[in-house]
Specification:
The structure holds 2 protein chains of 2 kinds. Chain A is 40% helix and 28% strand. Chain A is an alpha/beta fold. Chain B has one domain (12-267). Classes of the chains: A alpha/beta, B mainly alpha. Chains A and B meet through helix 2, strand 6, helix 3 and helix 4 of A and helix 1 and helix 4 of B.
Chain lengths: 319, 269
């Protein structure tokens, strides 16, 4: 049953604190060398899932294997191949960046010489050489996150858990973090990332699992998820309401929306190439001038809102 | 691209020792880097020693056996009191680690997790040794004189180190139980204040009211203080040395596994 290509396999995972059911059935599969993003609002169960996968937390039901090892019975084996970073991990503030790295390297069972050499390499890679010998408490938020990630990479574990690695970072630090994560992916690391930023999942992940209320409510690639929500939209702007009304008559049913005040029409399209051409041909025949046009692709924000919205709606019905 | 990594290949027990050594280095670095705490470790004992000797010396001195000055009497008490109050630092360090999430990181590593506690407790020995040496030097400067032999001093050092170690493990339990640093502070205060003041640390226990005396004479701090004091003043020690060592060992036997158990349970939630 265990497929070697899947490095992380979770099925039917449940976890409760008393009557508070945090996870009510999570299924995940992460292929070797890919990134899966666990997307969800605050309190969806993202961090709980990561804590269970990284052996920090016991779970109630289901099966969880990481690198083929059961996390409950083979926690020590799992710990040798994972790195954890993000909101549920931390660095030592009184130690310098270099000391943090060497200490964690030693605890990963690296020899002293090896830990020291690897620390130097990571400090360079993460742009922390200048701050290397300053206590971590003097670091900026972005530097601290970079150190946090570097620390989890000290023994180059093949599997990394990134728990909201960019939450609270300014846009520039976030981009820097993304670049680092992309490099990690290029090196073939398997990554499980949690985030509440759709853009982040869209930019980085191969597969996205949307969770809310402790269960999976959707999964697929970014493109597949967007496809679930709706088709691309073509937004056309005209020079006045007369032109707009005329165009609306000609185009007929495909018009789904529009705004008389801005003289715009919005229509769904299946295929950009043929549909846009058809629309423009029809309008040209009728001698209606299009002032501007814009193809609007559904964003993950649309996906997210529609999915979590639906979830809330069904919950209300259940009650 | 990456340098070749070399992993240790040693038996489990040796690795556990290396883990503890790494954590002792970490906690000791904390002591040195945490300037406020370091100043406390230096000046608080000096202040206590000088103030107590000056304030109570006149009144209590008269109640002491002939030929014993209050400073000579006080020295053992103030050292043990400093160790007891200083153990709060261990408790705070443990609470801080649990709160800040670094324990989570340690637990996600293939290390022996109890090394975290070992690190704090052992480095506490280092800080207390500094405090004690500072007090002894200050004491000598203001008139403390001891008639103890070298062997006695070795015995004193042994008793004090063992007691410090035992008390730090108790403090580690407080650190694991407490939910915040504030909680550690009041919890330690409530536990340590009565233990140190209802003891022979500052006044002879015989001068206390009957109900308090029974407690004071038999509790561990009095035993440790009396053992150290008798050795320092070179007077007959009675059974204080053995009883104090037994107390410390007893505390260790109970508190070490309890701290380990509570730590594992607390950090797994």
């Amino acid at each position: 049953m265990t497929n070697q290509d899947y490095v992380i396999e979770v099925s039917g995972l449940t976890k409760s604190y008393g009557t508070n059911h945090v996870l009510t059935g999570i299924d995940l599969k992460v292929e070797k060398g890919t990134m899966l993003a666990l997307l969800g609002p605050n309190g969806a169960g993202k961090t709980t899932t990561v804590r269970i996968l990284s052996t920090l937390l016991h779970y109630d039901g289901g099966t969880v294997t990481v690198a083929g090892h059961d996390v409950a019975s083979k926690a020590d084996e799992v710990r040798k191949v994972i790195g954890l970073t993000g909101q549920s991990a931390a660095v030592d503030e009184l130690l310098t960046g270099r000391e943090n790295l060497i200490m964690m390297g030693r605890l990963y069972r690296l020899t002293k010489a090896s830990a020291t050499a690897r620390a130097k390499e990571l400090l360079e890679q993460f742009g922390l050489e200048k701050a290397a010998d300053r206590p971590a408490k003097t670091y900026s938020g972005g530097m601290r996150r970079r150190l946090d990630l570097a620390v989890s990479l000290i023994a180059t574990p093949p599997i990394i858990f990134l728990d909201e690695p960019t939450t609270g970072l300014d846009p520039r630090s976030r981009l820097a973090m993304w670049e680092i994560i992309k490099k990690l992916m290029a090196d073939g690391t398997t990554i499980l990332l949690t985030t509440q930023y759709l853009e982040e999942a869209d930019q980085l992940a191969d597969q996205i699992v949307v969770i809310d209320g402790g269960k999976v409510i959707a999964e697929g690639t970014a493109a597949e998820l967007k496809g679930q929500v709706g088709k691309d939209r073509l937004v056309l702007a005209f020079k006045d309401d007369e032109a707009r009304t005329a165009a609306k008559k000609i185009l007929g049913k495909v018009v789904v929306d529009g705004d008389p005040k801005t003289f715009t029409l919005s229509l769904t399209i299946d295929d950009i190439n043929t549909d846009v051409k058809n629309v423009l041909d029809k309008l040209s025949e009728a001698k209606i001038t299009v002032m501007s046009m814009d193809v609007h692709k559904p964003t993950l924000d649309d996906v997210f809102l529609s999915l979590t919205g639906k979830q809330k709606a069904t919950k209300m019905e259940e009650k | 691209m990456a340098t070749e990594l070399v992993f240790e290949n040693k038996p489990r027990a040796v690795m556990a020792l290396i883990d503890s050594w790494v954590m002792i280095k970490r906690s000791s670095t904390h002591i040195i880097r945490n300037t406020d705490q370091l100043l406390g470790a230096f000046f608080q004992p000096i202040m206590f020693l000088v103030l107590f000797a000056a304030v109570f010396g006149g009144a209590i001195g008269q109640a002491l056996p002939h030929g014993v000055t209050y400073l000579n009497f006080l020295m053992a008490g103030i050292i043990v009191q400093t160790v007891a109050f200083g153990s709060t630092t261990t408790a705070i360090a443990v609470t801080n680690d649990l709160q800040k999430g670094i324990v989570d990181r340690f637990r996600s590593l293939p290390m022996n997790n109890l090394a975290v506690l070992n690190g704090h407790v052992v480095s506490d020995l280092l800080r207390n040794t500094i405090s004690t040496l500072v007090m002894l030097i200050t004491g000598l400067a203001i008139g403390f004189r001891s008639h103890a032999s070298f062997t006695h001093w070795l015995l004193i050092a042994g008793i004090l180190l063992l007691f410090t170690f035992a008390f730090s493990w108790l403090a580690a339990i407080v650190g694991v139980i407490a939910k915040s640093v504030e909680a550690v502070q009041w919890l330690s205060f409530v536990l340590i204040f009565p233990l140190t003041f209802a003891s022979s640390a500052f006044v002879p226990a015989e001068s206390m009211p009957h109900y308090l005396r029974t407690f004071a004479v038999n509790q561990p701090i009095t035993q440790v203080v009396d053992a150290v004091r008798s050795l320092m003043l070179n007077v007959p020690v009675g059974n204080h040395v053995w009883v104090s060592i037994l107390w410390s060992l007893g505390i260790l036997v109970v508190s070490t596994p309890l701290a380990a158990f509570l730590f594992k349970r607390r950090s797994a939630n």
